[in-house]
Protein 1
Amino acid sequence: NAGVTQTPKFRVLKTGQSMTLLCAQDMNHEYMYWYRQDPGMGLRLIHYSVGEGTTAKGEVPDGYNVSRLKKQNFLLGLESAAPSQTSVYFCASSRDAPSTDTQYFGPGTRLTVL
Amino acid sequence: DQQVKQNSPSLSVQEGRISILNCDYTNSMFDYFLWYKKYPAEGPTFLISISSIKDKNEDGRFTVFLNKSAKHLSLHIVPSQPGDSAVYFCAALSNDYKLSFGAGTTVTVRA
């Protein structure tokens, strides 16, 4: 079991460029999440999904889009990157809702936008 | 505005002693609380949780205490071990799917 994996581990973008972060889980989990972590702040939820084909906005969704075409994958897209999106991005998954099941996190993607 | 606050960014403790990490929250709708542990270059991993109907939950060396009236919870690690050196995040859940995290406390256990 690889658990939750994230691709890529590091990326540097120029302002205005686009990119997609890939999250994959092999635990057959229904729920998947994207968070960002900034210095001095806790993880903040960007978007989440409660099942294949579904997505929902989290706390800080602006500037991001997501897709969950396959149950095991959750993609986070930045259409036009901005320096404010420099952050560490974590993907997580859980079998059930957070109130009843633990979230398992990937190792993170460190993104720098110049 | 952060609804979950960890006011101590760092904590240094001698091996074998107790580590006490504190967390305060503002949203009275939070009904489930969790602690996550994070090593460098890794994602957070679940450590221990507590429901709002309890005031204490224990798992081995880790105990979480909840004081609802004060909107405060704490994590006790006894005894502290070098492998406990990590960043600890407090998180809280309300009735939806969103976890609110504190900024984290970096614990350093000295030999």
Protein 2
Amino acid sequence: NAGVTQTPKFRILKIGQSMTLQCTQDMNHNYMYWYRQDPGMGLKLIYYSVGAGITDKGEVPNGYNVSRSTTEDFPLRLELAAPSQTSVYFCASSYKGSSGNTIYFGEGSWLTVV
Amino acid sequence: QKEVEQNSGPLSVPEGAIASLNCTYSDRVSQSFFWYRQYSGKSPELIMSIYSNGDKEDGRFTAQLNKASQYVSLLIRDSQPSDSATYLCAVNEIKNTGNQFYFGTGTSLTVIP
């Protein structure tokens, strides 16, 4: 019963380094999302995807890139890490059911940039 | 930009009492509404979803939706210490560009034993 799986769970990066947060879902959901959540704050949308090969910017896309080559995978790339990118990152997926939509979250990736 | 507003709290209630959490949203095209619970250091987990005006009950939880007033609430009856968490309100809108979710900043609830 995996759902949405994110790796790594914790990572420390030095300023200027790059890394990729991996996300995969096994629920065959078309829609996938990356959010960041700063301490005491709400979820801010970074990027989203409506299906394989289609991605679009959310509220706070600067400093990030995504790709969606398959339905299952939606990696988030951080280029030239900055302290402002210290945050918790949540990958999520959703479907459109007959009675509405629901979004499901991965367990989160805690990133610190020093 | 859609806005989802919640009272950040903290809200404190004694064990066994009713906790009332409120949420307002900024426009009338939102189609689905959700309450998520988030424990410290954990990811949000779905508690309730509601799509039409009125009340929806699930165990100790009742969600109330009033689309005319752009208002959704969550009542937690017989509150337990394990209910202590941050509660996120979310609204959903289906657009041509995708299936968008907008979250409030959350209300922190503490249930005092």
